[in-house]
Amino acid sequence: MRMFRNICLIGLLFGTSCSLSWAGDASPLFDKPLREIHTTLPPDPDNPYFKKPLLSCYYFRNFMVKQLDFGEKGAEQLSILPYWLKDNKEPPCLRANATDEMVIGPREWSGYFEGVKSDFIFFVSADGSDGGSSFAVFDAVDAWKIFVDAEKVTNNATEFTTLALLNHPENENDAVLELRYRRVYRAPCSLRADEKNCWSLIRHITGLMESLPPNCSIAYGAKEKAYPENATSLKTDPSVITYDVEVVLDSGSAVRVTPVSKAMECYPAE
């Protein structure tokens, strides 16, 4: 997956910090950080099972993104520190939080830093589900969570096909962000149990236009065959469908979410 969890290997072997340039394994659609700092922290005596806590700071034009990773599933802390009000002076990369540092609470998001496009900050979930990976988009100005969705994972990787800034339709001095990706949508119903009514509900929620649902019988049938003792209950498992979507965001909310393909797959939720 696209995650900025890169390590300056030589420096970290000796427990020192290091500043490095763009690591190169992240999507080129994201902005390149001005610089990165990765520091191995001393072990926490109160939590000896945390091995080599890693502090990472990613510096961009107007803000820094900080990630504290204890090696457990999901980062221990994700935060955003703007510095355009401080004569654009870069803050130090410290474990202690600055007074104006905006910490992303665990109820808001739990996972890892993914990337930046202009003032839009992407975080990815620590775990995948339903064949997809959840991501969230935050605004760098006030750490407002703008949008959450899930995209398809193929060969252990996810990838936006489009991530581009566009002119704002109402404010020429502002911009909006366009994303395109293969969406993973978990329906609130089962197409296997009640195809007609469930598909009508899915179309209403997603905006998918085709009148006929995708073929769900193969995936459901395989699961029912694998667990024959639960075949009856498995039919009611919520359906997951995938389809290509275009999303346009501004700094306040999702402006538009539009399907740009038919439903590609259908299978029972995990």
- What's the total number of strands? 15
Q: How many structural domains can be distinguished in the coordinates?
A: 2
- Taking pLDDT < 50 over at least 5 consecutive residues as the criterion, the unreliable ranges are 1-26
SSE string, helix = H, strand = E?
Answer: HEEEEEEEEEEEEHHHEEE
**Number of helices, counting only DSSP H or I runs of 4 residues or more:** 4
Give the distance, in angstroms, between the N- and C-terminal Cα atoms: 20 Å
- CATH topology (fold) name of the largest domain: Lipocalin
Oligomeric nature of the chains: single chain
Second-tier CATH architecture of the largest domain: Beta Barrel
Name the average pLDDT: 85
Structural class: mainly beta
The level 1 CATH classification of the largest domain is Mainly Beta
Give the strand order, joined by hyphens, for the main sheet. 1-2-3-4-5-6
Radius of gyration: 21 Å
